[in-house]
Amino acid sequence: MTVEEAIQTAIAFEKKVRDAYREARDGAAEPSARKFFALMAEEEQDHVAYLEAKQAEWTETGSVTTDGLATAVCPCEDVEKKAAELSASLEGAGAAPEIDRLRKALDVETEASAFYRDMVEKLPPAGRALFAKFRDIEEGHLALVQAEINGASNFGVWFDVQEFVL
After folding, report:
1. Has residue 110 been placed in a domain?
2. Cα separation of 53 and 85, whole Å?
3. Which residues of 142-164 are buried (b: 16+ CB within 10 A; e: fewer)?
4. Which of 31, 62, 64, 136 has the highest count of CB atoms within 10 angstroms of its CB?
C-alpha cells in the first residue's frame, strides 16, 4: 500500500469511527453518555480534517509532516473522573443500551487501531511517523472506551487492574 492509499484508507476508517460515535451520541439517553460520545465524535472529525489536509500535502509535495496532530482525549486524571461519572449514571438495567453502544465503539476503534499498527510496520519511512501518532492516539481511545465499559458494567476492573478480590 502506498502512503497516499494509506491516507485515503485512514480517512475512511476515521469517518466510520466518527459515524459510530455520532450514532451512539444520538441514541444515548444518559446525558453523560451523550457527552462522552459527542467528545469522541468531535475528536474523530478532527482526525478526518487532519488527514484530508495531509492528503493534500502529500499530493502537493510528495511528503507528509506530522505537525499539528493533537488529541482532546488523553490518559489523564480527567479520564478516571469521567468514567466514574458515566458508570455511576448507568447503574442498573438502563446501562445495557449504553454498554452496547460502547462495545460498538470499541469494535470500530479496534479495527482502526489495527490498521494504524499495520501501516507503521509496512509503510515506507515517509508515512510511518504520521501513522505512529494515530496508532498511539487510537490505542488511547481503545483504553478509554474499555475503561468506560468496565466502569459501566461494574466489573470491578479499572484499566485492566482488578479493583477488589472476592
Report:
1. yes
2. 36
3. bbbbbbbbbbbbeeebeeeeeee
4. 64
Q: Which domain holds residue 80?
A: 3-156
Residue length of the chain: 166
pTM of the model: 0.78
161 found inside a domain: no
Identify whether the C-beta of residue 84 lies closer than 8 Å to the C-beta of residue 144. Answer: no
| 31 class by beta-carbon count within 10 Å (0-12 exposed, 13-18 middle, 19+ buried) | exposed
Q: What is the CATH number of the domain that holds 53?
A: 1.20.1260.10
**Residue 165 covered by a domain:** no
Total domains present in the chain: 1
Closest by CA position to 25, among listed 15, 13, 14, 33: 33
Residues 6+ apart with CB under 8 A from 73: 39, 40, 43, 79, 137, 140, 141, 144
User: pLDDT tens digits, the chain, 166 residues: what are they?
Assistant: 888 999 999 999 999 999 999 999 999 888 888 888 998 999 999 999 999 999 999 999 988 888 877 776 655 455 555 555 655 555 554 567 778 888 898 899 899 999 999 999 999 887 888 898 888 888 888 888 887 877 777 655 444 445 544 4
